[in-house]
Write a structure and sequence with these properties.
Elements: H1 4-27, E1 37-39, E2 45-48, E3 67-74, H2 77-83, H3 92-108, E4 112-118, E5 121-126, H4 137-159, E6 171-178, H5 181-210, H6 216-223, H7 228-239, H8 248-252, E7 254-268, E8 279-292, H9 300-304
Amino acid sequence: MWHLNSLTDLILPTTLRILKPWFKRRASNTFSPVSLFTTSCGGSMAKTKFEYVRKFETDDTCLRNCWIVVRLDGRNFHKFAEDHKFKKPNDDRAIHLMTRCAQAVMECLEDIVVAYGQSDEYSFVFKKESNWFKRRASKFMTHVASHFSSSYVFYWKDYFHDQELLYPPGFDGRVILYPSDQNLRDYLSWRQADCHVNNLYNTVFWNLVLKGGLTNTQAEERLRGTLSSDKNEILFSEFSINYNNEPLMYRKGTVLVWTKEVETRTKNAKGSGEEKGNDIVVEKSVKKATPLHCDLIGDKFWEEHPDILMDH
C-alpha cells in the first residue's frame, strides 16, 4: 500500500525537473512561442501581445451624409509629358488614356456616380450613402489611386502604340467631403472653369512658341497680365483661331456618367428540343461609364442626368 508521503516524494521531483527549464526562460524574460499568444476558450490562438500597436491607427471615417470626392493629380506630369513627347497644346492620346483609366476605376467601384477629368487630373464622386470599406478615407484614396495608376501602365500601348513607356507615372490623391448637392455642383464647376482657364492659356502659349517663333520665356512674358479677351484676340488676329471652335474635349474636359447599353452575344444552346446544339443570340443590359464633353456649370446637364444627385 502506497502512503501519501511516498507518492508525493515520487511525483514532485519529476514535476520540478520538467518545469525547471520553463521557469528559467521566464526569469530571463525569454518567451516560448506559446507564451506569445492568449488562447480563447475554444483553445485556438486569438490575439498576440503585439496587437496594442493597432491603437496607433487614427480614425479616418468620412462623415455620414456627405458626398465623397477623390481627386487624383499627376505627379510631376510636366516632365512626364516632355519625356514622352506629348503633343502641344493637347495630345488626344493622353486625354483618351486618362479617360480609359477613369472608366476602369468606375467599372471596379460602382458606388461612383459621376467622374470629371481634365489635363492630368480626375475627380471621382461617390454616392452620399456609400458604406464602401466603412467609409474610411484612406481606403477610398489608396484604392482609386492605385487602380488608376496601374491602369495607366496597363492601357498605355493601346494609345501610345510606338511610344515606349520610359518609367511609370505617379498620381497623388486627396479626399474631400461635400455636405450639399450645391457644394458638389460648385466643386465640379470649379474644376471645369479651371480646365477652361488652363486650356486657353496653353493654346495661346504653344501657338506663340510653335507658330509664332517665340521662346518659352518670351511667350510667358507676352501673356503676363493678359485677360481672357486678350488671349482670344491673340489667337484670332495672329493665328486665325476662334477659340470657341476648339474641340469641347479640350475646352470642357470629360464627364463620365453611367449609361445602360444592350450587349448582344452568341452562345451555343445546351437544352433539349430544336434549339439544342444551335447558336442563339442573347441580349443583356449592362452599365457603362460613358464619356461626355459638355458644360457642367449650367443647369442643363443636371436636368438631363437627375439620377446623379438622387439618393441611391
